[in-house]
Specification:
The protein is built from 5 helices and 15 strands. By secondary structure, the chain is α+β, with helices and mostly antiparallel strands. Helix 3 packs antiparallel against helix 4. The longest helix is centred in the first third of the chain and has 21 residues. The two termini are 34 Å apart.
């Protein structure tokens, strides 16, 4: 499938969907506390998406996924299924991954939350993972090879003695949840893709404190680090512009100037 170039009208719809997805992550932050279950966090997100935003969760029912958001705690790399049995405790690191559909277009984003008092390793892993995303965002512009993003993310992460998950990647997005291209977060063949204005995709590095290898659970969704080390992820939906990129899922705790002008 070819990479689609988004029209101004499509970008306007993606801007709305992206803002809604970001607002879910802003809304849920105060609820991510010791003693809360991931099932309760999912219900709060679902209610907000459906009743406040009048939108749709793209995750609910996607290939059979049973919940409205993915919530991945500690060694869970991605696709964690929220549960009333999973109670958050002091020092946990938690990724909440939200994809909202509004007027047929998708906004996809995730961020890390630290529950209560952070651990030194957990806080550092989250910071490095977010910085690896920022590094890539600052590089995006027409004319650069897509694989350059993955190469620089990998180089930065491994210099911090962490590792980049290989099996999952960013993706094109728009009317479809997962479109072309695949956006790898390590140095690998990109099929010769060169960025052009109007391309829309996610960048969402998954970074492990230990080895990059993973294992899939029997539920068919949950993915954990093979060595049980901590894992973190940050994700934004972006559109390539003539001079850089527009971040469609920008949150209030993410200042555009800090992301696009900070030192690597």
């Amino acid at each position: 499938m070819a990479i689609t170039i988004k029209t101004p009208e499509e970008m306007a719809k993606m801007r709305v969907a992206g803002r809604l997805a970001a607002e879910v992550l802003e809304m849920i932050e105060e609820h991510v506390q010791p003693g809360v279950s991931t099932g309760e966090l999912d219900r709060l997100c679902h209610d907000y998406i459906v009743n406040t935003q009048k939108a749709v969760s793209a995750s609910l029912g996607y290939h059979g996924f049973p919940k409205s958001v993915c919530i991945s705690v500690n060694e869970v790399v991605c696709h964690g299924i929220p549960s009333d049995d999973k109670i958050l405790k002091d020092g946990d690191i938690v990724n909440i991954d939200v994809t909202v559909i509004k007027d047929e277009y998708h906004g996809d984003t995730s961020k890390m939350y630290i529950v209560g008092k952070p651990t030194i390793q957990g806080e550092r892993l989250c910071r490095v993972t977010q910085e690896s995303l920022y590094l890539a965002l600052r590089m995006v512009k027409p004319g650069i090879r897509l694989r350059t993003l993955g190469r620089e993310i990998q180089k930065f992460v491994e210099a911090q003695d962490f590792s980049v998950v290989r099996e999952y990647c960013g993706h094109g997005i728009g009317k479809g949840f997962h479109e072309e291209p695949q956006v790898l977060h390590y140095d690998a063949d990109d099929g010769g893709v060169v960025l052009q204005a109007g391309m829309a995709f996610t960048i969402e590095p998954m970074v492990n404190a230990g080895d990059y290898r993973i294992r899939s659970m029997k539920d068919g969704w949950t993915v954990k680090t093979k060595d049980r080390s901590l894992s973190a992820q940050y994700e934004h939906t972006i559109v390539v512009t003539e001079t850089g990129c527009e971040i469609m899922t920008l949150r209030k705790d993410d200042t555009i100037s800090a992301i696009l002008t900070a030192d690597a």
